[in-house]
Amino acid sequence: MKVFKQKLSSAEISAIIGGEKQEPSDILLNNVSEAQEANESSIIFCEQERLLEEVQASRAGLIITNQTFAKRLANRPIIIVDKPYFSFMSLVSYWLKLDADEQEYTIDPSAKIHPSVSFAGKVSIGANVIIKANCQIGDNVVIGENCYIDKEVSIGANSRLYPNVTIYERVHIGKECIIHSGVVIGADGFGFVLMDNRQQKIPQVGTVEIHDYVEIGANSTIDRATLGATVIGEGCKLDNLVQIGHNCVIGKHSILCAQVGLAGSTIVGDYVYLAGQVGAAGHITIGSRAMVGAQSGIAASLPEGGKYFGTPAIDANQMKRQIIAQKSLPDMYRIYRKKLKGEKCD
Amino acid sequence: MKVFKQKLSSAEISAIIGGEKQEPSDILLNNVSEAQEANESSIIFCEQERLLEEVQASRAGLIITNQTFAKRLANRPIIIVDKPYFSFMSLVSYWLKLDADEQEYTIDPSAKIHPSVSFAGKVSIGANVIIKANCQIGDNVVIGENCYIDKEVSIGANSRLYPNVTIYERVHIGKECIIHSGVVIGADGFGFVLMDNRQQKIPQVGTVEIHDYVEIGANSTIDRATLGATVIGEGCKLDNLVQIGHNCVIGKHSILCAQVGLAGSTIVGDYVYLAGQVGAAGHITIGSRAMVGAQSGIAASLPEGGKYFGTPAIDANQMKRQIIAQKSLPDMYRIYRKKLKGEKCD
Amino acid sequence: MKVFKQKLSSAEISAIIGGEKQEPSDILLNNVSEAQEANESSIIFCEQERLLEEVQASRAGLIITNQTFAKRLANRPIIIVDKPYFSFMSLVSYWLKLDADEQEYTIDPSAKIHPSVSFAGKVSIGANVIIKANCQIGDNVVIGENCYIDKEVSIGANSRLYPNVTIYERVHIGKECIIHSGVVIGADGFGFVLMDNRQQKIPQVGTVEIHDYVEIGANSTIDRATLGATVIGEGCKLDNLVQIGHNCVIGKHSILCAQVGLAGSTIVGDYVYLAGQVGAAGHITIGSRAMVGAQSGIAASLPEGGKYFGTPAIDANQMKRQIIAQKSLPDMYRIYRKKLKGEKCD
Known about the structure:
The structure is a homotrimer.
Chain A: E1 2-9, H1 10-17, E2 20-21, E3 28-32, E4 42-46, H2 52-57, E5 62-65, H3 67-70, E6 78-80, H4 84-99, E7 112-113, E8 118-119, E9 124-125, E10 130-131, E11 136-137, E12 142-143, E13 148-149, E14 154-155, E15 160-161, E16 166-167, E17 172-173, E18 178-179, E19 184-185, E20 192-195, E21 198-201, E22 207-210, E23 215-216, E24 221-222, E25 229-232, E26 237-238, E27 243-244, E28 249-250, E29 255-256, E30 261-262, E31 267-268, E32 273-274, E33 279-280, E34 285-286, E35 291-292, E36 297-298, E37 307-309, E38 314-315, H5 316-327, H6 329-340
Parallel strand pairs in A: 3-4, 4-5, 5-6, 7-10, 8-11, 9-12, 10-13, 11-14, 12-15, 13-16, 14-17, 15-18, 16-19, 17-22, 18-23, 19-24, 22-25, 23-26, 24-27, 25-28, 26-29, 27-30, 28-31, 29-32, 30-33, 31-34, 32-35, 33-36, 35-37
Antiparallel strand pairs in A: 1-3, 2-6, 20-21, 37-38
């Protein structure tokens, strides 16, 4: 349950999200919740058959639903819309902004900021933050507690770093980005060459460019390039514990789910979807709008727009047929063995 | 080798763990170790044939063993018990408590604690810790250095956060929990909807509930729910680098090994065992006492109590038969190809 | 593009890396870059056909290449060597050292260092660092901001911890090691025993030994041993988000790519190569110079020197044959089903 400080009446809510209001009383609501935990001041939504019973039994003060379910929620205060979940979430976004504390633009006195750092406007810098020489921090940037930002880093306007993020030197972060706690951006790419029976380090002198509107999940790691830049394109969303190797270049608006790993120099197109725990080999290209199923291992380049699955990843339908056939493999194998022995088998 | 400050005599040890003492001399011991590194003051244990030689050659001052091995450790100071490893580890636990420095209940002066934070008893707060408004900290809680705890978090009695843990707002942690370094609890769930060709963020306004007796390994991440709560049930143990998506609900006493990842809204029962690198799809249910082999990909709900393996995960025995049959697949394929060409093949 | 403060002439560069200089003019250069981003002061290299066009079109002031490509770079300032990439990277390493700011040997006043900590020489300790009792810090060690080092840890000469590293008590780190941000070394091994229907914690009283010349990538975790030590051998290189379970022992100069996970008590030989997302079961041995393909699941011990792939990992060539045969499995299965029905099928 998310309780907001400001209350909204059902009339106000109806004005915000549109839809048809079916209950005359105009009560005040102060929270959004799931059906089970709802109280008289809660707003919930209903659009799934399997959750209807819970909704009917809930104490929620207002239910956002659609025409299909409206009849089955007789005598309940409801607002009828086309897409209940979507309208509900739009309301939440609206309410969060309405309710937000006015951002305090303070720099905590314990922060250690090099005098050469430039601020393009008002910023919020938390306790124990360290910002090294020649960084450029945009307007309305929020840098959470315990973050470390090495020299010559730039962070665009309205970006937010949650506490405990580490940014190595010369990394560029665009505007409107969200970086969650524990993320490390710009650590050395993983490059070694065996010489005289030792792994000699290849210097990693490139950088990382995070474009605008990117969100990066907790404890993910994005390595700096050997030369040039590792690039995360505009609007990409990375989940937790994702690993991006050096010199990868990811296009726009792609989704990388949790624990995905890209080896070095992998090129990823726009609107690509990589499900959880997918791995990709280095020096390959994943075409735009490709969708790759969970745990797949991408061993070679994938064309645009297809669906892929498996290790090595192939066309998803083909892989599904293999998986179905595999279930009969032990029986097929038994017949095969009989044949080898010369027995009659069919 | 773990050296304790307080020494114990073999008589005292025998009194602590029970068992039959077979050596008259009553020497003082001060450490537990592996056989190879043992010295005259070491206690080791012996219950495996493959390690017997090392034990015989060791300089250990006392060996905890069972009847089977007792004869083969003639002239050595031994204590005979039913379960040597278990008794040995019970001794270690006992000794650790005996030896523990009296917990210093201090709040480091560098900690930044909001005046509204409530403490239910004595606590230990390390250097550079930040605790925001309205948090409730239980009795005997230890919060390690550099931890960040956002507003309205509660932490139950006797829980311990190792250094460098990040807790986002409104997370609840039960009593007797252990949270290792680098863990991030309560970061935003991974929810986006493509609208106008951009990934629009779905607000994540739920929370996380960690119940009592939970241990969470280093650098694991547990996301907050979209609505409601992501729940880790009583007594669950999570290893390192584990990812729990938003709205997952895990039952009691389940084990999640390292690098396991659960997508959103996955339901896990009680006493479930997920081996290393297992992934689970979202919106499925894993039945209580299910055991799932390493690297398995759980694509659909699994019934209670079975053993499962593979991607997609199926009955483990069936998967083993498939794996055996697969080894002959290249030969089967050769015959298949000959057949297609019309050659005689058997 | 990596810009250096000190400029080098092409004559100086030729003197550093050897090779044949083919352009009379002796211009001053100040950066290394990729071909596309190069300017008149850039050095680039060329040894791949597929990148030749980019190199020809680039504005680079100097190109390091070999005899094969020299002819196709007429009228460009070039230096001809046997191994362009290697020579280029040697130059970068040289230049980085030449250009390095003189290391400032300062201990930030905000660092909290127990009076019993010993320093073997000059060290650099960043802001907010915490070092507990009885640690031993070698000569020329650099400890980045926000690191936490628990009691009785030793760190060898010339080792570097990037910001935000956590080291638990009694861990030993050798000389010339590089530990990237977010790494956690020495957290409790993952050991529990089910007793009275609860997961009882097995105390983890061993330690971790990181030998000399080891590099550990961002957010990796290395657990302490139950007894004895978890060992990372000399010269090993671990990428990001790698998990090493308790009591693992890794030999010398092995490479573990990103997101690799080793369960407890796994023994890894020398010069082993584990590609990304490989998992290994516990209590097995991976022979020296074994190479294991990405995402493989090592379920049993592997002999020395082979190439392995798959889950469970087997000889890589055998696995490749299986993968090829699998593509025809749906067709084989169709014929098999016809046979079962008694239809003529070949």
